[in-house]
Design a protein that fits this description.
Strand content: 15-25%
Radius of gyration: 17 Å
Oligomer: single chain
Order of helices and strands: EHEEEHHHHEEH
Number of strands: 6
Largest sheet: 6 strands, antiparallel
Structural class: alpha+beta
Number of helices: 6
Strand order of the largest sheet: 1-5-2-3-4-6
Distance between the termini: 51 Å
Shape: globular
Length: 171
């Protein structure tokens, strides 16, 4: 068994692209954290029994608060209040603070988290190089906000996005 900082699986994305790694981990019904790095970008993908349960990206072009405000799910004032509280409660995720302040309902938050997770995964699947490390049995706490996204569906949707992007560039 690997030590705390030593991955159980390591690969270069130029040789083992992210869709292939995710598909392999999904088919093995793996549980753990897949850390994918490309330059300054880092994407943490948590899997539970082969399903994507949580995704965290740093830095992120797609920020939860900005997404919620842009889509009318909460106000800028609500977001600012939650962000101020988050400075005091650093370990409490923004979404949970918005829920606690009654600025958002659980379904809206869960839907936003799913959309942002997919978008971050689609982008990472296009990275031409980088590194991936898988840490077996590293998990996040499960609750009703856990995503449970099917890897095969994510990969198909990412390929559709890529095809659309190529068509726009050629057209």
């Amino acid at each position: 068994m690997a030590g705390n900082d030593e991955p159980d699986l390591f690969g270069r994305l130029a040789i083992f692209p992210l869709p292939n790694l995710l598909q392999m981990l999904s088919s093995q019904q793996a549980t753990g954290k897949l850390l994918v790095c490309y330059g300054a970008r880092k994407l943490q993908i948590y899997l539970r029994q082969g399903l994507v349960s949580f995704v965290h990206s740093k830095p992120s072009k797609l920020r939860l608060g900005e997404y919620l405000v842009a889509h009318g799910s909460c106000t800028k004032a609500d977001l600012d209040k939650a962000l101020s509280l988050q400075k005091l409660e650093k370990k409490v995720p923004l979404g949970k603070l918005l829920l606690a302040l009654n600025n958002l309902d659980r379904k809206t938050l869960r839907d936003a988290l799913r959309i942002l997770a997919r978008e971050n995964l689609y982008e990472a699947m296009m990275w031409p190089m980088g590194e991936a490390r898988f840490y077996h049995r590293v998990t996040v706490q499960l609750d009703d906000l856990t995503l449970r996204l099917e890897v095969d569906k994510i990969i198909l949707e990412a390929m559709r996005h890529l095809d659309e992007k190529r068509a726009k560039e050629q057209g």
